[in-house]
Specification:
Number of helices: 9
Order of helices and strands: EEEEEEEEEEHHHHHHHHH
Largest sheet: 5 strands, antiparallel
Low-confidence stretches: none
Structural class: alpha+beta
CATH topology of the largest domain: Jelly Rolls
Oligomer: single chain
Mean pLDDT: 90
Length: 290
């Protein structure tokens, strides 16, 4: 059963309400089935919650996401003196009209492409991090904004909640992740991306990559696609187009020279690849710069 709560890149979560509570007696979480997602952060004490048969004990400085449509309840095990915050919100991740990918764009491909925002990502279900040390103060500010009935209050609060969730997501990444790729250089996909970044100004050579990785290429290709949602050739091509965009931004290099710089022998072919990848020709893309 899927219990992860997902957010999407193209629409921020819409906050329903925000609150805080403290109990001085043993507390039992209500038995509920909700049509919205829940974020809980325990500031003091500990809270016991069961979601569809799985028990969670949220300690001080820990969070838990509860998924809409799943029954959750509690036993009389939440300790006296426990205080917590909650955010109730609706995410677009379950919109059946959208075909969201489960893999975000790789950080090295962060220039806009037509499908750039069409993905969803899971929030860390339960846990803590260094970020959680400041979470109580952040939630106090968010709650104050929620209670302050200014124009566009709910939109502002929803945007702030989205940013908070994104920072919480970032804090959950493994410390070994490379700041350039978002992948650990010890993993298969991280090693492939590191190699592609070193050879982005060359034609793609699957044989050289397989030899560098000391792996069968068919296995390597399938494993990379499963980990990233993209083919190795697609990532190599997008890296080259990103390099072209960087050169456009920092120089007046003509298309023919750009093409040659990036290892394309035919500038017309380079232009076709650029337009297929970005949706615009090199000249049209460049004309957007100020």
């Amino acid at each position: 059963m899927e219990t992860d709560v997902y957010l999407t890149a193209d629409r921020f979560p819409l906050v329903r309400d925000i609150g805080t509570n403290r109990v001085e007696q043993v507390y039992t979480h209500p038995d509920r089935l909700l049509d919205y997602d829940v974020f809980v952060f325990v500031a003091e004490g500990s809270m016991q919650v069961v979601e569809e048969g799985r028990e969670y004990v949220i300690g001080a400085g820990e969070h838990l996401f509860l998924k809409k449509g799943l029954r959750h309840w509690g036993l009389p095990q939440t300790a006296p003196g426990t205080s917590w915050y909650w955010i109730h919100f609706n995410s677009a991740a379950d919109d059946k009209r959208m075909n969201y990918a489960d893999h975000p764009p790789l950080p090295v491909l962060d220039y806009f492409f037509p499908d750039h925002y069409e993905y969803r990502f899971p929030m860390p279900k339960h846990g803590t991090s260094l970020f959680h040390r400041t979470l109580k103060e952040r939630l106090d500010l968010l709650l104050a904004d929620y209670m302050n009935k200014k124009p566009h209050r709910m939109t502002r609060v929803s945007l702030q909640a989205y940013l908070l969730f994104m920072e919480l997501k970032q804090a959950s990444l493994p410390p070994s992740a490379s700041p350039d790729t978002g992948r650990s250089t010890d993993t298969l996909d991280g090693r492939v991306i590191a190699y592609l970044m070193q050879h982005m100004e060359e034609d793609y050579d699957s044989g050289k990559l397989a030899a560098h990785m000391n792996l069968n290429y068919s296995y390597l290709s399938a494993a990379f696609k499963k980990l990233t949602g993209r083919s190795i050739l697609e990532v190599h091509t997008r890296l080259r187009m990103n390099r072209a965009i960087e050169l456009m931004r920092t120089s007046s290099m003509p298309v023919s020279e750009l093409s040659e710089r990036l290892g394309y022998k035919n500038p017309f072919y380079f232009s076709r690849v650029f337009k297929k990848t970005t949706g615009e020709s090199p000249s049209a893309y460049r004309n957007q710069f100020y």
